[in-house]
Amino acid sequence: MKIVLAFDSFKGCLSSREIIQIASTAIKKIIPQATICGFIIADGGEGTIDALVAAWQGKIICEAFHNLEGLSQPAKLGFSSELCILECAQTLGLTLSTRNNVELKTSRGLAEQIKFALDLGYREFVIGLGGSGTNDAGLGMLEELGYCFRDLVGKPVAGLLKNIAQIVQIDAHKVDPRLSETQFTILSDVTNPLCGINGASFVYGPQKGVRDEQVAEFDRGLFNFSQVSADFAGFNAANLAGAGAAGGLGYAFLQFLNTQLVSGVEYLLNALQIDTAIQAADLVFTGEGQSDAQTAQGKVALGVAIRAKLYNKPVLLISGALRPEAYQLHQHGIDFITSIQDYPAQLEQVMQAEVAAKLLGQRIEESLRLLLIGRSLSNKVSEHS
User: Which of 88, 255, 342, 366 has a 20 to 30 A CA-CA distance from 164?
Assistant: First the structure.
């Protein structure tokens, strides 16, 4: 039996690479002769660097940059040929910060990484936008790249969300000239615009710590900034699909830099050339930390299922947790859905790496036992038909 493993990470718990190791061990216990093809995979969030570096046989280096609270911390950069691979989660990651004082969070660290790679001679970037903890429309990033924001009297305004309503003018005289010859591909499956009830503040702000009474205020700030930016640039990217990604960071790229936005899942799956392995497989396993309504909006599991169904391959989804709406994924090509949790437990306990690893291995084993029972029954039916 040939089995493909295409799991996203269980964020904050198990990496995609660790899941492949755990699942492979479990599979071999039940089907020793199985041929296993495992893919380190991501959707543009955490794990994007690892996935693309593994696919392209590149390299990873680690340097210190500022996180969204302005504190220096180690962060990874990936390199392959003439391409630099970054992910927002490394410097702007929501898991690296508290959810307090969102108006003070900065996207500066991502620009520091960009400048670091520019210094090394790189002019082509792939950047995963997933997992960010900012809602600043990329002000911190843009300021670090040389853009200056000014108020009514021409005084410079720090690039922070708390100051966004004061910005009435943008000065580009000190923008890094290397950006004019640099191309960015940003990875996101978020299609939200920058502003409005479907925008960055209303939809994603609360999960980043934006309080209910701040949502409308911040949304107005983003809208005002987009108007100032439109006057500056001569066009407005605020309503483009994906402008609301990563707290408006998608907008900053689309509005101010040479950028194309593409589906993170599709980009990764194509880079991994996963279709070849799926076409030759008998069975496909996928999963993620939590499967819910967002899974069907462009997460790894959905992308894998769509590819598998092109070749009529069965797809088993095993996730860390399931929301009730996860079972609607049967309509999108996922044949079997289950979670690693099989007894009442505290989330903090299940998210301990050793606990999650044990539960995942057990669930893989039991899923395969059920699969073998089904195959045996199918053979008996065929014999009597």
Answer: 88
